Amino acid sequence: MNVLELQHLKKHYATHKAVDDISFTIPKGSIFGLLGPNGAGKTTLLRMITGIFYPDDGEIIFDGKKFDPHKDIHHIGYMPEERGLYKKMKVGEQVMYLAQLKGLGKQDAQTKIDHWFAKFEIASWVNKKVEELSKGMQQKVQFISTIMHQPKLLILDEPFSGLDPINSQLIQDEIFEMARNGTTIIFSTHRMEQVEEICDHIVLVNKGRKVLDGSVKEIKQNFKQHLFRIALD
Ligand code: ATP
What family does this belong to (predicted)? Predict the structure, then answer.
């Protein structure tokens, strides 16, 4: 079954076509790589999938039905590239606030906070202000905030930027575990080596258009050739 179907999506900024007729489908439980160079249209695409932007044209089908951002947002976890934490809030309060925004009750949220903070070894940060944490530390907090409500679809935009190898591995292991348990994951990046290591399927975009769509194995065989084409484009 497909969790997400994008049908002929389009989005432009003034006259610039940031996403220009992109379609693809994402099966349940897959780790799906959205790959493309800077400016390819990845973030614009993700913002439509998360309901931040309405498409100018095209359709999004989520879990078999027409996507309704107001309802479906509780089933989506989105970790944007630019971190969205409130710097002056304490870490524990921040994660509680975001969990409640996603529909968790206070007790349930607290149980989950205790679980994740222990698992990620950050329990001692609860009373620190977000601004006291390094970029990588904030990233761990943001990741926990994004997965706490157990989304059906988890969208990660460059989740490893600024993370050291140990913490990258921690998050990578969690991504694999979630996919094994049926969560569908979109992993957006411009780094092929990360996609190769983590994803089972890739869509390659460039200048708002889909260039390739296939399994990692298929795309790896022709990747250099396609990069060369993108460079000439
Ligand atoms: P990156 O990997 O650098 O984050 P991206 O693939 O996420 O890039 P987008 O941020 O979606 O790409 O941008 C796609 C295109 O749309 C780019 O040419 C960008 O300059 C343009 N663009 C993005 N946001 C805006 C905006 N708010 N107004 C005008 N143009 C924009």
Answer: Belongs to the ABC transporter superfamily.
CA nearest to 42, candidates 213, 205, 156: 205
Shortest-distance atom of ligand 1 to CA 45: 11
Cα 115 to Cα 207: distance, rounded to the nearest angstrom: 42
* 8 CA → ligand 1 middle, Å: 18
Separation between Cα atoms, residue 176 and residue 139, nearest integer Å: 18
Q: What residue's CA is closest to ligand 1, atom 26?
A: 13
- Of 150, 130, 149, the closest CA to residue 140 belongs to 130
Instruction: Tell me the mean pLDDT in the region 155-168.
Output: 91
229: pLDDT strictly greater than 80 = no
Note the pTM of the prediction, 2 decimals: 0.91
Cross-strand pairs, 34: 188, 203
pLDDT at 179: 95
User: What ipTM was reported for this prediction?
Assistant: 0.95
How many Å lie between the centroid of ligand 1 and the Cα of residue 36?
A: 12
Give the other-Cβ count within 10 Å of 92's Cβ: 19
Residue 1 CA to ligand 1 center (angstroms) comes to 31
Phi, psi of 212 (to 5 degrees): -145, 155
